Amino acid sequence: MANLALERVSIDDSKRRADLTKLIAQILESSKKFGCHFGRLPLEVSAEIFELAVQTDYLALLGLLRVSRSWNSITWNSSSLWCKLVLRVKKPGWKARRWIQRSKGVIKHLEFSPEKSLFKAEDFEGMRWEYLDSLVLGELDIAGLQPAWLASMTRLRELHHSSEPLGVLNPVISFAQEPAIARSLRTLYLRGCHFITMDGLDILHSLETLAIIDPVVAGPDLAAIITTFLENNPHLRHFILAGQRRAGDIISVSTADQKISLPFLEEINLSDLSLRSLLQLLETPLPNLRHLSVTGSSDSVAEGLEMLTPSPSLETLDLSFIGLDSHTPVLELLRASPKLHTLSLQSIYNVAAPVLQALADDTSFCSHLTKVDVSGCPDVRSGPIVRLVKTRFGIPPSDPEDSNCESGSDEDGTPVARITSLTMDRCPLVEAETLPWLRQQVKRVSCVYMTKKEASFTR
After folding, report:
1. What's the mean per-residue pLDDT of the chain?
2. Which of the residues 2, 117, 374, 456 has an alpha carbon 20 to 30 A from that of 308?
3. Cβ atoms of 63 and 72 closer than 8 Å
4. 438 close to 385: Cβ distance less than 8 angstroms
């Protein structure tokens, strides 16, 4: 409108033309500030941004539909945003049909509710099963899926399966019916599954991640099952084994005639099971081991740590609720782990305190250490913690106040990383007076002496 008015003004009327020109400039400047810049992006770029948001939280898809008409249009017409289908108890059939329609049949992640959902085979009409990459089965038996669906899952790389106490028996055996799935599968999570026989366990040969949580073993022992899995999957990178339901089912295997070689193994996560017994099956040490976590084990943990020494690639060490008579095995493993950056020693008596003291006195080992967690260790005191923080970023012990250095160095001049996270929850001997100084020097400090529930019993 302002441009049309400017065209009608006479050339001789310089004052009105100047006012209109100024008004047009103000309008353009205001539109730059308050205009919809996002709407000027190409559709492909907008869809890519939305896809990044949906990857972390699939429920964000519903929020994107409600922002504006343009966002609704982009979301509704971008099939890549609808590739993750999570079916709960409420209207699973309706949701499956809608998601398959919007994604043009390309569902890459399919997840069923932990509860049994009611749906029909017709609800998945039009789904292109060959594009399915990840499948999460709640209480649904994989053998209960349509045979045509299983035959089409040629790209399935990840499978999560769980069962009730009287649920699925030998969940892996159904893979023998579809060798294409066994060849493509890389990640397998089994929770609470029954193992009656060894049938079908040797069909998998390409696993990179294996997690067996709360297994229920009726026929073969747990050691035979684990041995079969490990022998048939030499490229395994992540191994998680938890036996909380039957803590007595500890791997009890004597030294085997031929050790299992897992040269690519990067992670071991054990809960309520023996580290030593597992390592007796493997060729040790493990040169590529990066993450080690042992929880709730009291069966020769020290011997297991000695078998892993040295671990030149170890980056994370997490020991919780374990029985150790001495801190020496932990300290020797730390000295032989130059890349370690995260150390967690939780609820272990007479181990965390001497380890902290050694780390404070000698910065020549664990020079990359940045995160320390000693929660639940009743013998940890303020002194070793303060000295650790000082020596790890260059504060002389005689100067407790002045520190602006990002990193320090040891006597040889080797750079020493700064402590960025310090957790001391449930450590009653840590003095509250030291916490303000620690919070000034360390980016994240947590020191919760007890929870509200625990405190209520002491009143």
Report:
1. 81
2. 374
3. no
4. yes
